[in-house]
Design brief:
TIM Barrel, eight-stranded parallel β-sheet, alpha/beta, about 15% strand, 2 domains, two-stranded antiparallel sheet
Length: about 425
């Protein structure tokens, strides 16, 4: 394996919202991740973590058991993948704040996504979540505490009153909560460094960010999933963060889940280009400016959103992106390597969908989703466009979605049923 990559750490993000894999499937893909060039995992459990005590209600119906989490960590070690757990502590708190018992901790009563940072109970809640996560992850070096997309921050009644005081601001409100959460991690779990997504930090004035003390507590993860990533803008942002006192930083790209909330197949060329631009960013600064890169693979845009690309469907994109990082780009020899890893005769990167068999774990799911994207979707669109009146007579009103009826392929099984029964932790179709 080439050592040309500037990213020492290459973490594959496992977003467990909505379509969590069975442990048996993870046992198949972890060795592939390692072979492709990954050396770590960012595991976002959300409601799949086996919370205990007063947090037990956060568990999904088919959440992993403590023994299954232990087995996942064992399998990761066998494949030399360092685990970094992720727990949301500010924004994207829907899986917590949707419950009536915690609803009073919402920043805005009607929206369960943002935690009210003024309530002492809010900090106690996220501290308990962190402690339970780290109880099962005792040897980790990093804990990701989220803190991205803190929508409606400052719009709660308590925040509005607080912001009327001259010395207060939205930036201070954000930094104060981030500091409190990070301080808990560092104090109660020595040796564990908090990571945060950087979007809430980008526009904070440099002097205010520096004076907050946050740069001494966390390592920011600069995320950008675009095929038009602004290389010079990212280099400038890295410089700003360095001047504020951040000693170490991370990058975050995407191999799936970043090009549409209901995307079924990842646009591979888009994601390869995103990684090539991140390579330019990393290569333009001092060595080791960026600690590593997290290849995100979002499963849902938020807790209540529809599923986007399933994990098996994103494997070819992940393979191309990881190998691009390892070898410094996606040249023809890299393409051939990826094809051998996946067991495919030809990897199509320019079209959103392409047909072809493979031998990688979950390739059957990939094939079924591809068939649906190539054939069934256009047939359904044509049916809806040309047969509106018959649809109404048969019980479908114009504009009604057919998403609830899973298409059947290959002997009458739908791809959702096959994924659920064979690969997904959930035992019913989505």
């Amino acid at each position: 394996m080439s050592s040309s990559t500037p990213f020492k750490m290459r973490l594959v993000h496992l977003d467990l919202k909505g379509a969590p894999p069975k442990v048996s499937y993870l046992s198949e893909v972890f060795p592939l991740f390692h072979a492709l060039g990954a050396n770590g995992l960012l595991i976002e459990y959300e409601d799949m973590f086996p919370y205990e005590g007063h947090l037990k209600l956060l568990r999904a119906k088919h959440a992993y058991s403590p023994s299954e989490v232990t087995e996942i960590l064992r399998l990761a070690r066998l494949s030399e993948l360092e685990v970094v757990p992720l727990v949301q502590t500010f924004g994207h708190m829907e899986f917590v704040l949707k419950h009536a018992v915690f609803a009073h901790l919402r920043e805005v009563a009607h929206f369960p996504n943002t935690l009210n940072p003024h309530e002492a109970e809010s900090l106690t809640l996220v501290q308990a979540m962190i402690d339970q996560i780290l109880e099962l992850h005792r040897d980790v070096r990093w804990l990701h505490i989220g803190c991205d997309e803190v929508y409606y921050l400052g719009e709660g009644e308590t925040s509005k009153q607080w912001l009327q005081q001259e010395q207060n601001s939205h930036a201070k409100l954000c930094l104060t909560h981030m500091q409190a959460v990070a301080s808990h991690v560092l104090t109660q779990h020595p040796g564990v460094t908090p990571l945060v997504w950087d979007d809430m930090l980008r526009d904070i004035p440099q002097e205010q960010l520096k004076a907050s003390g946050v740069p001494q507590l966390v390592e920011p993860v600069l995320w950008d999933y675009g095929a038009d990533l602004d290389v010079h803008g990212k280099i400038f942002l890295i410089g700003k963060y360095q001047e504020c006192g951040f000693q170490r930083m991370w990058a975050a790209s995407a191999f799936k889940g970043a090009t549409g909330a209901s995307q079924s197949l990842p646009p591979v060329e888009h994601h390869i280009r995103n990684h090539e631009l991140w390579l330019q960013v990393a290569g333009s600064g001092p060595v080791d400016t960026l600690q590593g890169i997290i290849l995100t693979g979002w499963q849902r845009y938020d807790h209540f959103s529809v599923l986007c690309e399933l994990l098996p469907v994103g494997i070819p994109s992940l393979a191309a992106c990881l190998q691009s990082l390892v070898h410094g780009g996606f040249a023809e020899d890299v393409r051939l390597r990826v094809e051998r890893f996946l067991g495919v005769s030809s990897l199509e990167i320019t079209d959103t969908v392409s047909e072809g068999a493979g031998s990688f774990p979950g390739s059957d799911i990939h094939a079924l989703v591809t068939q649906i994207s190539l054939h069934l979707r256009s047939s359904v669109d044509t049916l809806l466009e040309r047969n509106r009146f018959p649809l109404r007579l048969s019980g479908f009103a114009p504009g009604m979605s057919l998403a609830g009826s899973a298409p059947t392929i290959a002997g009458g099984s739908s791809f959702t049923q096959l994924w659920s029964s064979t690969y997904s932790r959930r035992h019913s179709a989505f």
